[in-house]
Amino acid sequence: EGCGLSNVQMSWGHDEYLYHLTKAYLPQPAQYMIRFHSFYAWHREGAYEYLLDDADRAMLPWVQKFNPYDLYSKNPDRPKLADLKPYYEDLMAKYLPATLQF
């Protein structure tokens, strides 16, 4: 009880992978958004409250703010890479080094 989500053993996928690639470069709210946005039982249903620590409670609003952009941003029409690539290259250059360590 109260151990914090960072101390809970969970099954992870691409969210955890991206978290580990970027955690050294992004602020804590961004880390939580990446790592826990698919953990709906916590941020949508209010489950596992007894496991949370103060950091988890402070980060919950960030995860909830991010989630609609992930969950409801899917579009049946595939975007054109050439149109998006410059925007995302600039964004990555702003926040991440040219090479990420694995």
Structural notes for this entry:
Helices cover 54% and strands 0% of the residues. It is built from five helices and no strands. The protein is globular and about 50 Å long.
What's the mean pLDDT score? 91
Q: Largest sheet, described in full?
A: none
- Number of helices, where a helix is a run of at least 4 consecutive DSSP H or I residues: 5
Fraction in helix: 40-55%
Shape: globular
User: Could you tell me the number of beta strands?
Assistant: 0
Low-confidence stretches: none
SSE pattern, N- to C-terminal: HHHHH
Strand content: under 5%
Calculate Rg over CA atoms.
15 Å
State the secondary-structure class.
mainly alpha
Terminal CA distance reads: 32 Å
Task: Give me the secondary-structure topology.
Layout: H1 14-22, H2 28-36, H3 40-43, H4 54-71, H5 81-95
Q: In brief, what are we looking at here?
A:
The protein is mostly helical.
Throw out a few tags for this protein.
mainly alpha; 102 residues; 54% helix; 5 helices
